[in-house]
Amino acid sequence: MGTQVIETLLLLTLSLLGSGQDSSLVFIPGGEMTPFYSVGSQQVRVEPFLLEAYPVTNAQFLRFVLRNPKWRRSQVQRVFAEKNYLAHWTGDLSFPPELADRPVVNISWFAARAFGQSIDRRLPTQDEWELAAQASETSPQGSDDPDFRQRILTWYSRPTANVPIPVGSVFQNVYGVHDLHGLIWEWVEDYNTVLVTGDSRGDGELNRQMYCAAGVSGTLDPGDYAAYMRYGFRSSLGPNYTVKNLGFRCAADMAWKEER
Amino acid sequence: MKRITRWGGLLACLCLLYGCQQPSSPSGAASTPSQSTAQSSESLPEEVAMLTHAPEVPPPITRKSPAKVVVKMEVRELQGELANGVSYTYWTFGGQVPGQFIRIREGDHVEFHLQNHPDSKMPHNIDLHAVTGPGGGAEASFTAPGHESIFAFKALNPGLYVYHCATAPVGMHIANGMYGLILVEPEAGLPKVDREYYVMQSEFYTKGKFGAPGLQPFSMEKALEEHADYVVFNGSVGSMVDEKALTAKVGETVRLYVGNGGPNLTSSFHVIGEIFDKVYTEGGTSVNQNVQTTLIPAGGSSIVEFKLEAPGTLVLVDHAIFRAFNKGALGMMKVEGEENPLVYSGKQKDIVYLPEGSAVQDIPGEPAPAPPTASNKEERVASGQVIYKRNCAACHQVDGSGIKGAFPPLAKADFITSPSVVAETVANGLTGEIRVNGEIYNGVMPKLSLSDEEIANVSTYVVNSWGNKGGEVTPGDVAKVKK
Questions:
Q1: For the segment B204-258, what is each residue's pLDDT rounded down to a tens digit?
Q2: Tens digit of pLDDT for each residue in A21-69?
Q3: pLDDT of B24
Q4: Tens digit of pLDDT for each residue in B118-154?
Q5: Whether the model pTM is above 0.80
Q6: B:157-176 residues touching chain A, CB 8 A cutoff
Q7: CA spacing 20 to 30 A to B291: which of A251, A254, B241, B373?
Q8: Is B133 at the interface with chain A, CB within 8 A?
């Protein structure tokens, strides 16, 4: 009973904090995309999809763990989230109030997926995320602009801030999506498929054939260091990893509205 | 179709993205030591490696048999000073550039712990050229922020080896400072010497040109073009000059462990005023003797030894000489002891090495930011000090003492009869024989392309420093003496 009272209070507090932080979905027109890992001119078709305008905040995630106790810090299984899961929170259901509108970090891939499922959404695929993230403030192909690239690269070069800045405070791209660069790293559904086929030991042989720089001549744009770093970062992760600057946002299929 | 496309992509970039490694185990297996090594090395005595920051080197190994050596190295991304007034976000092995020096012995079993600090933005790994195995350990040490990887190897080959980060994009990880040296002593050890130092050359590519103040981001464009703004020893301009100079005494034999982190440039390593008695070419086993300049490839090393015969200041340079005097590749070793006129005479003076101030580096088309204007003498002195360190201190020394026989002193120099003498010399240059405090100097001081304001400030700084008589030079005074 006491727990229920606390939870009700928390929910009240959350609404006061503006926890109904805009989680609206933004339409991303699909298209042919030439991903970074493409050989020559091979392209990937990305279907139109919906992407959340902002990364998920601590407040939003708190509502999720309220309703889903197994994702609370003290109850989550290690296989789903390692011990730094939500390490910046002060307890199972609490964090410093100023973090309410900051992106949730220290979150595992499993937890991010579970959050998405709880609201009938999903994580974006790597291709979807990259397509949306190519866009600058003014162009869907912002990644062709050296200045845009350099800005991203400069962010990548700096150590992680102790507390991320609020969502919505970096930049809004031409589609209306905020903070795809410059705030946090973001989980994607297939974060390691580019590199891993399943059994990592099986990849070893393949790996050696492609030793080190062998891939360079095949990548479309070896100058796009920002993309290298994103793919590199993702490939360092395991699904239960939690990292201080890694959060997520959700996506949905076009049919999403009708399903609701 | 999509499957096929993706598979093609996989083949293309698998390894590069990945920095030559396999994925870490998702279950966090990184935190348990390799069992196979534990087995083969369990009978060995275990010790934790002492790691040192440049220019220090861990003491020689006295063991006569192999050991299990535990190396713990933490990766930190942090801001540091690349040059006077210029900062840079370094990615480091152990908190400084270059990375910590590791010293082990041939036949040792090494258990390597790579710890990536939770504040890191990037994953990192380590490729030790001393390792025989895929990726030199890179494969096994790929580590996300806030994680630790452990792998083991046996030191099969003696020599001085570079280690570096090999996480994609490899070039950027190296360009940001991720390299260091690991010495594998031969079983018989190295000959005893009196002093050992650790020197590592590397270059930096910044958005602003050399000397542009503030926090400078990495420039991918310049790195691709191999146009380095900074070429430095031990991670920053001036890391080994004046009060931070290496020291030694006449009669001692000195050994330098010299590495080149690159990422792009080959070093023509030279010590002005010395001849290397011995060079372990490329950090290997064969010894060359009586070498003036030794070539050190990017990702390579050299061990040089020389006996000190005479006192004075030796100058360590990359003899691709613009790098030394305009980009920072200059260090010093101060040698104390009895004068030895026989050894000292003759060739000590070498005009070829006379410096040209970095100020001549202006690139047409890129207007320099307007320097602040000094409004009083104090501001002039403060601004002049920065200009002095950047343009003058390499030869005249930070304390104005000069280098006897080569670069005249400015401290208490009888040559400076009035403040305008300094301004005139800086503005117009000076060639030919002069006498300063009783010593004859016959060299060339190039005309520096500094603004009148800068010349006024640096001149004011000089006349108000090191016991000089004081006074002030204004830009108007400079305009009057400028030819």
A1: 999 999 989 899 999 888 998 999 999 999 999 999 998 899 999 999 999 999 9
A2: 457 899 999 888 776 665 555 678 899 999 999 999 999 999 999 999 9
A3: 39
A4: 999 889 999 999 999 877 888 888 899 999 999 999 9
A5: no
A6: 166-172, 176
A7: B241
A8: no
Q: Which residues of chain B make contact with A182, given a CB cutoff of 8 A? A: none
Check: CB of residue B231 under 8 Å from CB of residue B327.
Answer: yes
> B360 near B368, Cβ under 8 Å?
no
Inter-chain residue contact A200 with B21, CB threshold 8 Å: no
**In chain B, which among 278-307 make CB contacts under 8 A with chain A?**
none
CA distance B193 to B190: 9
> Over 80: is that where the pLDDT of B156 sits?
yes
For residue B35, pLDDT beyond 60:
no
Taking the CA of residue A211 and the nearest CA in chain B, the distance in Å comes to: 6
Q: Is the minimum CB–CB distance between A229 and chain B shorter than 8 Å?
A: yes
At B363 the pLDDT is 44
Q: Which residues of B touch A215 (CB under 8 A)?
A: 12-17
- CB spacing of B123 vs A156 below 8 angstroms: no
At B49-82, the pLDDT tens digits run 999 999 999 999 999 999 999 999 999 999 999 9
Q: Return the residue of A nearest to B1 by Cα.
A: A44
pLDDT at position B5 over 60: no
Q: Is the pLDDT of residue A160 over 50?
A: yes
Mean pLDDT across A116-136: 93
Residue A175 contacts by C-beta under 8 Å, 6 or more apart in sequence? A26, A27, A28, A29, A51, A132, A135, A140
SS3 readout for chain B: CHHHHHHHHHHHHHHHHHCCCCCCCCCCHHHCCCHHHHHHHCCCCEEECCCECCCCCCCCCCCCCCCEEEEEEEEEEEEEEEECCEEEEEEEECCCCCCCEEEEECCCEEEEEEEECCCCCCCECCEECCCCCHHHHHHHHCECCCEEEEEEEECCCCEEEEEECCCCCHHHHHHCCCEEEEEEECCCCCCCCCEEEEEEEEEECECCCCCCCEECCECHHHHHHCCCCEEEECCCCCCCCHHHCEEEECCCEEEEEEEEEECCCCEEEEEECCCEEEEEHHHCCCEEEEECEEEECCCEEEEEEEECCCCEEEEEEECCCHHHHHCCCEEEEEEECCCCHHHHCCCCCCHHHCCCCHHHHCCCCCCCCCCCCCCCHHHHHHHHHHHHHHHCHHHHCCCCCCECCCECCCCCCCCCCCHHHHHHHHHHCEEEEEEECCEEEEEEECCCCCCHHHHHHHHHHHHCCCCCCCCCCCHHHHHHHCC
Query: Which one has a higher pLDDT value, A164 or A186?
Result: A186
Interface of A with B in 43-82 (CB under 8 A): 43-45, 79, 82
Inter-chain residue contact B169 with A193, CB threshold 8 Å: no
Both structure tokens of A87 = 């390490």
> CB contact, 8 Å: B421 with chain A?
no
pLDDT at B20 over 70: no
